[in-house]
């Protein structure tokens, strides 16, 4: 099943069972360092390989690399707790912010497309540019 299909299934199922008070959510983990990843490495190399996995993940995870299953389990624990009593139909990403990041070296800031939702320039700088453009425009009308 694709990720989009799972997200859609989560929302539809949440709608169907909401009347009975059942909550339906999905947890979408990112890159997780597990013992299984290290299983085939010799014992004397496991620690070094784990550090390599974590270092690699740090490049794409704003909150740092090394997401562990315990973090995923804590998220699931929260979703089944009373603290999440009004959360349903959600797909919660547990990935140290990986879905927010552009991997290092993938794209230069000058090549980024600004959707308008994210402004890379500080607000004061943008406002000063707008004021200058407005002044130039109003100067041309006179």
From TrEMBL:
Biased composition (Polar residues): 112-122
Signal peptide segment: none
Region (Disordered): 111-142
Highest classification ranks of the organism: Eukaryota, Metazoa, Spiralia, Lophotrochozoa, Mollusca
InterPro entries: DHB_DH (IPR003560), NAD(P)-bd_dom_sf (IPR036291), SDR_fam (IPR002347)
Positions with biased composition (Basic and acidic residues): 123-142
GN (gene name): LOC106012450
Protein name: 3-oxoacyl-[acyl-carrier-protein] reductase FabG-like
